[in-house]
């Protein structure tokens, strides 16, 4: 499977603060990738390294087989929408489209004008007068109309209300369905990612904790509820990620290649939000270990 982003031992330091540590990651092409993690985990740093806005302190990163921002041709293949969905308040919607056409050699004017029309936006209206959701849609239009092979979105819906978030994500998925673009979408809203993403990467404490296709991850993580017992008494092949106990009952979050069978307990599938929260808790509770994508090889 072709990787669209490859990082090996990637690190970024700001003075004494380590923003990203020993990040080794392979993102397959043709996926909608959800990048999750708590605030300060290194998500924006990783995405800005992928765009070429930052340079690594250590390690290497390749995007589309090249160093990020290695030249105009490489830049033309990557679209980026930052967290504040930057636009120019004094310029009209039409001005933004004209600017996009001048700056991007692969600009698709038909796509850009069609999106603005479908969104019901007045091309002559200044962007500063638009709502937050509308500005985000303009920013997305600029990013997708350059027809990138990789679209990177750094929490573009964080400040939007639920309806605007849904409309933004719906527009994104319509574009992906039609053009097959690989997307990396950073968000702390797991419910949004659950609707659109088929690959997951979790960063915690500046390290990759888990990475893989969502179906594979959900198919190998379970909640086991039993009468109180020690983790060492669980069936072979169950790796315990988290354990809680009451006087009579034990609940384990486990990883296993197959569901297995425990006659003394109830084994249930784990939802995406619980999966993400489990790895966040594990990552902040102690030293980071190898990410799941490596441990299962």
From TrEMBL:
GO MF annotation terms: ATP binding
Protein name: ABC transporter ATP-binding protein
Keywords of the record: ATP-binding, Nucleotide-binding, Transport
InterPro entries noted in UniProt: AAA+_ATPase, ABC_transporter-like_ATP-bd, ABC_Transporter_VariousFunc, P-loop_NTPase
Segments forming domain ABC transporter: 5-230
Organism of derivation: Streptomyces rubiginosohelvolus
Organism classification: Bacteria, Bacillati, Actinomycetota, Actinomycetes, Kitasatosporales
PANTHER family in the cross-refs: ABC TRANSPORTER ATP-BINDING PROTEIN ALBC-RELATED
Top-level lineage group: Bacteria
């Amino acid at each position: 499977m072709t990787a669209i982003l490859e990082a090996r031992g990637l690190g970024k330091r700001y003075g004494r603060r380590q923003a990203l540590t020993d990040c080794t990651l392979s993102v397959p092409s043709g996926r909608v990738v959800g990048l999750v993690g708590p605030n300060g985990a290194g998500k924006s740093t990783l995405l800005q390294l992928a765009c070429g806005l930052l340079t690594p302190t250590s390690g290497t990163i390749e995007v589309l087989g090249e160093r990020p921002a290695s030249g105009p041709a490489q830049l033309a293949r990557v679209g980026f929408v930052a967290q504040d969905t930057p636009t120019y308040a004094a310029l009209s919607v039409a001005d933004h489209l004209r600017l996009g056409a001048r700056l991007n050699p692969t600009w698709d004017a038909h796509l850009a004008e069609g999106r603005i029309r479908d969104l019901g936006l007045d091309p002559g209206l200044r962007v500063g007068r638009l709502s937050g959701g509308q500005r985000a849609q303009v920013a997305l239009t600029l990013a997708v109309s350059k027809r990138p092979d990789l679209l990177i979105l750094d929490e573009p819906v964080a400040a939007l209300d639920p309806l605007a978030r849904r409309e933004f994500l719906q527009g994104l998925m319509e574009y992906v369905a039609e053009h097959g673009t690989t997307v990396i979408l950073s968000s702390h809203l797991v419910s949004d990612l659950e609707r659109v993403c088929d690959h997951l990467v979790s960063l915690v404490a500046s390290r990759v904790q888990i990475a893989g296709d969502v179906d594979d991850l959900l198919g190998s993580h379970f909640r086991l509820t039993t009468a109180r017992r020690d983790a060492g008494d669980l069936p072979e092949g169950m790796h315990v990620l988290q354990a809680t106990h009451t006087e009579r009952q034990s609940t384990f979050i486990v990883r296993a290649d197959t569901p297995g069978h425990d006659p003394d307990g109830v084994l249930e599938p784990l939802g995406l939000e619980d999966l993400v929260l489990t790895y966040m808790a594990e990552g902040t509770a102690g030293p980071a270990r190898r990410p799941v994508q490596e441990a299962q090889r």
